[in-house]
Amino acid sequence: MSKASVTPTGGRDKTPAPRRPLTVLIGCDTFGPDVNGAAKFAERLAAGLVERGHNVHVVAPAAGRKFGTWTEVHESQPMTVHRLKSWRWYPHDWLRFALPWQVRANARRILDEVKPDVVHFQSHIIVGGALSSEAQKRGIRIIGTNHFMPENLLEFTLLPEAFQTAAIRTAWKAASRTFGRAEAVTTPTRRAADFLEEYTDLSDVHAISCGIDAHRYKPNFSADVPNKILFVGRITGEKKIDVLLKAFAKLPAELQATLEIVGGGDQLNNLKNLAGVLGIKDRVKFAGYVTDEQLKVTLSGSKVFAMPSIAELQSIATMEAMASGLPIVGANAMALPHLIHDGENGFLFAPGDVDGMAEKLERVLTMNKDERDRLKNNSLRYIRGHDITRTLDTFEALYRGETVVDPDPESTEG
């Protein structure tokens, strides 16, 4: 089976008995309106669980100065969100955090009020650490999901380079301690699971895709799509957007290619300056943040999606591009090879290889429509293995303490 396989309990009646809804408490260090993969996954998970009839509470830092508990609507579903008093981390362009000792006090209060069946934390750093510690004392089932790589935050810590190795080691020890409280630990891909097991003392980490509702995206097989290259994501160092700009600058002028970069981040001004230095400023659009509907239109109006990042634990943006039927050109790093099947739905290049990326982009832009349609159809085929229904089925089983088999994203059935 491609979804969670539940251990049978016996009995002759094969009709499943009605199952009571669960009260699920999801703990996040980042949640909507934040724009990043971890926040987007938490939103989709929470909304999917609400749609299935579960009582969902989310604990997350306040998005501004106002904090407290109220109902919010995410992915068209209402849920109870407990917003914690938070502060801006000014080295980062949007990050807000709650003070650990205040989170601990709030965790005690919220757990005693909500009395959840399960706590599912999305990050071990602050909120997840406090919730898991207090949940463990109360005998509440704990599930932990990792979206975190310490290296991604180093540039925002202001630590001198000499101290960064020690900081990474400390961060992984903290991760090991917090995730060690969980009955089950998950991360979006098998490579990310292996990575987590390598750097902590954890074992048997589940690889469960973040999932996507592919039916919400609109592939465009028109022959009139312009030679537009699209990148979507945070404008930060680990995304290696400078590699994309340099590769784009090498494309033949006769292609009349354009590049659109959707997202925001601390490297935005640096990259705009680089586009000017490379002489491509008039052909590069920095669109900033866009709405979900605007993004869908942009995806449908692009010819190829580019992802030069070296630090993707899954890449929801790449999954959205695949659901839009786009060929993908991406770095052969971390989780991207799980999504990009070289020569089938796009092409991989060596991380940081400007010439290699340029060659792959040019190949997609110059191939005939039949060949490009083959890549597009394969993107649509492969994304079926990441259907959000499989993800929700598996997490529901984990919440109930049932035996599960990780969904196989290589399976395209269903």
From TrEMBL:
Give the residue ranges for region: Disordered. 1-20
Q: Which GO terms describe its molecular function?
A: glycosyltransferase activity
Pfam families linked to this entry: Glyco_transf_4, Glycos_transf_1
Q: Which domain of life is it from?
A: Bacteria
Looking up SUPFAM superfamilies in the UniProt record yields: UDP-Glycosyltransferase/glycogen phosphorylase (SSF53756)
Glycosyltransferase subfamily 4-like N-terminal domain sequence ranges: 35-216
Q: Which UniProt keywords apply?
A: Glycosyltransferase, Transferase
Q: Secretion signal: which residues?
A: none
GO biological process assignments:
carbohydrate derivative biosynthetic process
- Tell me where in this chain the Glycosyl transferase family domain is found: 223-379
* Family matches, as PANTHER family: SULFOQUINOVOSYL TRANSFERASE SQD2 (PTHR45947:SF3)
Name recorded for this polypeptide: D-inositol 3-phosphate glycosyltransferase
Species this chain originates from: Alpinimonas psychrophila
